[in-house]
């Protein structure tokens, strides 16, 4: 079975490229930039070639080329011109588009090629901040709007997870931690979105800290075990979808009562769900952060 998504509605194109459907229609009708097709039941759609061309056209337009000029460029020369421009200007938007294409085609080769190209210009940490975080944000929105399937998201996140693990292992094989402070990273029960937490683990290891990564869906009671081995612990957790809004305050109160219990223990949390918290009612042991960079800047 062919699982590659190769038919897109104009709404799909809008979600994938950020170009308004109205603008796409104008470019199509006035400049003949795209050639939509029709299904056997006469439903209008765009194929993968149209999508890729639209990404390239958008990139050129964002880099100062007028649509009227782009329309006069021979079709096979458009990708070549894009490649030339990316060597002269920032490559972030182009790389994000390339990763989207890799995801839609389940194309591991394109993912690796794009990633290796980025490493020639950026450190891994910068690739994650500048490319992967914006990309993952877009992917989340595309999944919510049914533009992509969970299979697409899982394909991409598995490859990013692989890169985090490789870079973390590389550091661990070369360094020994020099800090008495211990960080314990975990996700609460039913929470499975671990990429952000994995990247925090990478950064902590890179800074020479003792970082213990417990992974996803960890019951509160299991965190007690760490207190038998370490005195100065900062737990870090990422609340993307869990705990749910109705129980998140109780979860933090339970953590404070069960795990902290007047000891020198802290909990740092971040993620989408923390926006629902009343910061004034948090236990003193709990700190909330808006993003990974803010959290990392708080570490001395």
Number of domains: 2
Give the terminus-to-terminus CA distance: 52 Å
According to DSSP, the number of beta strands is 8
Sheet-strand content, in percent, reads 5-15%
**Mean of residue pLDDT?**
87
Rg over CA atoms, rounded to whole Å, is 23 Å
Poorly predicted regions are none
Named at the architecture level, the CATH assignment of the largest domain is Orthogonal Bundle
Helix content: 40-55%
Mass-distribution shape: elongated
Please identify the top-level CATH class of the largest domain.
Mainly Alpha
Largest sheet: 5 strands, parallel
CATH topology of the largest domain: Multidrug-efflux Transporter Regulator, Chain: A, Domain 2
Number of helices: 13
- Kindly name the structural category: alpha/beta
Major β-sheet strand ordering: 5-4-6-7-8
Describe this structure in words.
The longest helix is centred in the middle third of the chain and has 23 residues. This protein folds into 2 domains: 162 residues, Multidrug-efflux Transporter Regulator, Chain: A, Domain 2, CATH 1.10.1660.10; 121 residues, Cobalamin-binding domain (Rossmann fold), CATH 3.40.50.280. It contains 13 helices and 8 strands. It is elongated. Helix 12 links the parallel strand 6 and strand 7. Helix 6 runs antiparallel to helix 7. With 300 residues, the protein is α/β, with parallel strands linked by helices. 50% of the residues lie in helices and 13% in strands. Strands 5-4-6-7-8 form a 5-stranded parallel beta sheet, sandwiched between helices.
